[in-house]
Specification:
Blueprint lengths: L16 H22 L1 H8 L6 H4 L1 H24 L1 H12 L2 H7 L3 H30 L4 H30 L4 H19 L5 H10 L17 H11 L1 H29 L5 H29 L2 H20 L3 H29 L5 H30 L1 H22 L12
């Protein structure tokens, strides 16, 4: 139910099933906008634009990550101030030129510019669908809500990456793969404009029912924090929020590195484009499907240990990929990497929802996602520099070491933010 109707606002997945399902579909389209280009652009860089330096090729990932990170902050701030739906619609308007620019691009600068717009689109739309789903379900089912949201988004990344690779193999690298983006944008604008309803009233309802923790841990995180205080708590001061922010950054460091580097690494074995697309799709595919389990699992067993295990699994997966030089090892590694990411991704968002007060939840999600999505740029730049200096395998080894360090930080600093209890729909 939504504010402004004759029916009362209620919290819970069952009470808001229709809107929740619609938002899952919208977020799948958000993910699909990324998937249309992930397999294709690194290959396009070499074959059509003659780019060979890994750092230069990865500029489009860095541009995407930095822009998305900044857009996340504005998404959180504006959604708390003006409402969720206007931010969602604005984000989709930024997507309109993206596939057209990728189709027409006469040089690599156009690709980078398209990814700046894509970063704005992703930051505004994905952040807003996260906040809207947390609004709808209330405190009991945050993990499940985030699992469904992220499963839809990254499942669509996987499916679209696979489909784009197939279209590129059958028809050429342009324009066929990017026609998917045109269709996704048109459908998303229709759904978001005509059928999605505002959810800020649900957050106001939860804020009115909010009760502090019995142990007093969150007493300093009251409703009246300023934007600067919210930034400081989420980034550095509050142990759970700041631990989640660093783990999110490292998680997306791995994704940003894989986005720019994995297709080039897999191509060293002279694999066809279709197999490269399959290998790349395994990672977000397992990641997406796994979140259907791990998000709900975190509601039952808690958040901290699932995050620690997930970051450890990512470190092991990257080590396996770095040590391999053929399809079998890379396939095993990407599956494990997807499983580790599935443990972490929805659970970190649930931590933010557990700790942040409903009055500034949107801004806390925005700050977390700033740090998390800066990982795209850090991974792209770090991966490019190490690959240029020491080779592709060395870049993956570096990411494995960083992931292991992140797991240690979570294990040592984060506290359990969710007391497991019986979950009802």
């Amino acid at each position: 139910m939504t504010a402004g109707t004759s029916r009362p606002v209620r919290l819970g997945l069952r009470a808001n099933a229709a809107q929740f399902t619609l938002l899952v579909a919208v977020n799948a389209l958000v993910g699909g906008m990324v998937g249309q280009q992930q397999t294709v652009l690194p290959l396009l860089a070499e074959s059509e634009f003659g780019l060979t330096g890994y750092t230069f090729i990865f500029t489009y990932v860095a541009a995407f990550g930095i822009t998305k990170a900044i857009a996340n902050w504005f998404a959180g701030t504006f959604s708390d101030r003006y409402g969720r739906k206007p931010v969602l619609l604005a984000g989709w308007l930024f997507a309109v030129p993206v596939p057209l620019m990728l189709i027409a691009a006469p040089n690599w600068g156009w690709v980078v510019a398209a990814n700046v717009l894509l970063g704005i689109n992703q930051g505004l739309t994905w952040s807003t669908t996260v906040v809207m789903k947390i609004d709808l379900v209330g405190p009991r089912q945050r993990g499940l809500a985030m699992g469904l949201n992220e499963a839809a988004g990254y499942g669509a990344v996987a499916v679209t990456s696979l489909l784009a690779g197939y279209l590129a193999e059958q028809f050429a690298l342009r324009p066929a793969p990017f026609l998917l983006g045109i269709a996704y944008t048109a459908l998303a604008l229709l759904l978001s404009g005509a059928f999605v309803k505002e959810t800020r009233g649900h957050a106001h309802l939860e804020a009115g029912q909010h009760t502090p923790r019995a142990d007093g841990r969150h007493d300093h995180l009251h409703a009246g924090l300023t934007d600067r205080q919210i930034w400081a708590q989420t980034s550095l001061k509050e142990p759970a929020l700041s631990s989640a922010s660093q783990a999110g950054l490292v998680n997306n460091l791995n994704f940003g590195l894989s986005w720019g580097l994995f297709p080039l690494l897999f191509a060293t074995a002279d694999l066809p484009v279709g197999q490269i697309g399959l290998l790349f799709a395994l990672y977000p595919g397992v990641w997406g499907a796994g979140q259907l389990i791990t998000g709900a699992l975190s509601d039952r067993v808690g958040r901290k240990h699932l995050i620690t295990a997930g970051m450890t699994a990512q470190a092991a997966a990257l080590a396996l990929i770095a040590a391999s030089d053929g399809f079998a090892g890379w396939a095993t590694g990407t599956v494990l990497l997807g499983a580790g990411t599935a443990m972490v991704y929805p659970t970190l968002l649930a931590v933010i929802g557990d700790v942040a007060h409903p009055a500034w939840r949107g801004r806390a999600v925005g700050v977390y996602r700033v740090w998390r999505d800066l990982g795209y740029a850090v991974g792209a730049v770090l991966g490019g520099i190490v690959a240029d200096l020491l080779g592709l395998h060395a870049a993956v080894w570096a990411a494995a070491a960083i992931s292991a360090g992140s797991a240690l930080v979570v294990a040592g600093r984060m506290y359990e933010t969710h007391r497991p209890r019986k979950v009802s729909a």
